[in-house]
Amino acid sequence: MGKKLPPEELELYKAIDEILWRDWDPIGVNEMPEARDEYQSYLPHIFRLAVEGKDAKHISSSLVATIEGNIGLGASKEHCHRVASKIVSAKNEIIG
Questions:
Q1: CA distance 96 to 92
Q2: CA dihedral 60, 52, 8, 96 (to 10 degrees)
Q3: What is residue 75's three-state secondary structure?
Q4: What are the domain boundaries of the chain?
Q5: Are the CB atoms for 5 and 13 separated by under 8 Å?
Q6: Nearest to 18 by CA among 75, 70, 10, 6
Q7: Of 2, 17, 66, 81, whose CB neighbour count within 10 A is largest?
Q8: What percent of the chain stands above pLDDT 90?
C-alpha cells in the first residue's frame, strides 16, 4: 500500500485482511500469531478487486488462482466462494 487510504477504504482493507487470515487461511496457520502476516502479500490485489466492485465469483476465482498458482495447493472453490462473499458483504457494509 503506497498511498494513504480514505478512512472507509482503510476500514475495508483491515476487514479483508482479517477475513483472509481468519476465514480463508489456505495453509492453516491462523492459530500461530507469529504467522499473522502470511497472507498480507495477497491483500492489495483482493482489496482492489473489492473496491472496484467485483462480484464474489470474480474474487473467488482470484482466491482459487492464488492458492493453486502462488501457494501450490489444491483449492476448494466452495470455500473460496464463501470467503469472497464475506469480502463483498464487508465492502457493501463499509463503503456501499
A1: 4
A2: -80
A3: coil
A4: 7-25+39-94
A5: yes
A6: 10
A7: 66
A8: 96
